[in-house]
Amino acid sequence: MAKTEVSVTTTRTEPRSARGIRTRNALIAAARVVFERDGYLDARLADISAEAGVASGSFYTYFEGKEEIFQAVAEQVTEEMVHPHLRARTGVTDPRELIDLANREYLRAYRENAKLMGLFEQVAQVDEDFRKVRIERANAFVRRNAKMIRDLQDRGLADTELDPLLTAHALSGMVSRMAYVAFVQKAPMPFERLVATLNRIWVNALGLTAGG
After folding, report:
1. H-type helices in 2-113, by residue range?
2. At what angle do helices 114-126 and 18-42 cross, to 10 degrees?
């Protein structure tokens, strides 16, 4: 199953008034447009404010600068790509079906946010803080997948000789990288074939038994 790419924590207290919340959300939505259009380095705060219909000086009521609003955009994208509690939400218990649902939802969300996901990769190479938080968030979801693998092993459904954490790192990283290749680098990969291939690799790697 897939891992989530990015999450961040902003430093300012979020507004409590309805107007303040609307303004902050408008700035984040505008920043998303500007970052996708101009990239991180060329994005200007004046353009973000103009896109949001907010006075330039008001920007600093909500964000300290470009780095912080970029982090807020990344946090929003992360929330869109997180699909927790699949079993509870769908009622699906079969491991193969759960793997399919998780990979499918992740790949769809990645495809919809491909421009920003590519930008996150670039910024992570030049911003140490952004890279650290990105890694921390990704590791949290690797640990979640490791817990799932360990549960399957305990139930006698998966290869018990596998290290759950290392296996989760390998398989989650594979899905994330393939999403980057397919949707950022635009390698020709039919969506359903990509999903089916990743699912099969997950199932085979875990050694899922017929009953699992």
Report:
1. 18-42, 45-52, 59-62, 66-81, 86-90, 95-112
2. 70
Q: What is the pTM of this model?
A: 0.79
- Six-digit token pair at 62? 């909500």
**Look-up: residue for tokens 């999903």?**
195
Q: What does the alpha-carbon distance between residue 152 and residue 175 come to, in Å, rounded to a whole number?
A: 20
pLDDT tens, position by position, 154-199: 999 999 999 999 999 999 999 999 999 999 999 999 999 999 999 9
- Tracing tokens 């398989």 back to the chain, one arrives at 171
Q: What is the pLDDT of residues 8-28, one digit of tens each?
A: 444 565 777 888 899 999 999
Specify whether the CB–CB gap between 109 and 81 falls below 8 A: yes
Q: How far apart are CA 69 and CA 45, in angstroms?
A: 9
Distance CA 7, CA 157 (A): 32
